[in-house]
Design brief:
Layout (H helix, E strand, L loop, with lengths): L1 H30 L18 E3 L5 E8 L7 E8 L9 H4 E4 L5 E3 L2 E4 L6 E8 L8 E9 L2 E9 L2
Antiparallel strand pairs: 1-2, 2-3, 3-7, 4-5, 4-8, 6-7, 8-9
Length: 155
């Protein structure tokens, strides 16, 4: 009987240690200030996705190409709700703010049309001039939230 109790205790301890390791691994990028996705050595890091869950709509934005020499800067956007239709014109609902605070309109949206409860697509902007230390994407009027701000450090 005692052997069974010791065996069960060992299993429980192993599970707790494994779970703690998984939690600490997941939090490691937050503790070390990393806001960038991993990239091969010698290339510019792509900023990580950000999610905003304010109001009735979840908005997830992932920068896809912010290279200075890109034809356009691209942000993948996912909208998700179960309470309302997503009828916004995404190219008019978002602006890109440069490091100096100047606003730049979107040049296009390629993705799901207005309507339904789930939308996914790519919002495009003209590449910002000069070297940008940071950019902010502001999305307005989605799910009753006046302005959602997504900011990425580029340097």
């Amino acid at each position: 009987m005692r052997d069974i109790h010791l065996h069960r205790s060992g299993v429980v301890i192993a599970l707790v240690i494994g779970l703690a390791g998984a939690v600490f691994s997941a939090l490691d990028p937050l503790w070390h200030g990393s806001a960038f996705a991993a990239t091969p050595a010698g290339t510019r890091a792509i900023p990580a996705a950000q999610t905003n869950r304010e109001g009735a709509v979840t908005v997830k934005i992932t920068p896809r190409n912010l290279a200075p020499d890109a034809a356009s800067w691209e942000f993948e956007i996912i909208l998700d709700t179960h309470t309302q239709a997503l009828n916004q014109d995404m190219s008019r609902s978002a602006v890109l703010i440069d490091a100096a605070g100047k606003s730049h309109p979107a040049v296009g949206w390629e993705g799901d049309p207005p309507g339904a409860h789930h939308r996914r697509g790519v919002l495009r902007f003209q590449p910002l001039p000069g070297k940008q230390a940071a950019v902010e994407l502001r999305v307005t009027g989605i799910g009753g939230v006046e302005v959602r701000k997504f900011r990425w450090q580029l340097e």
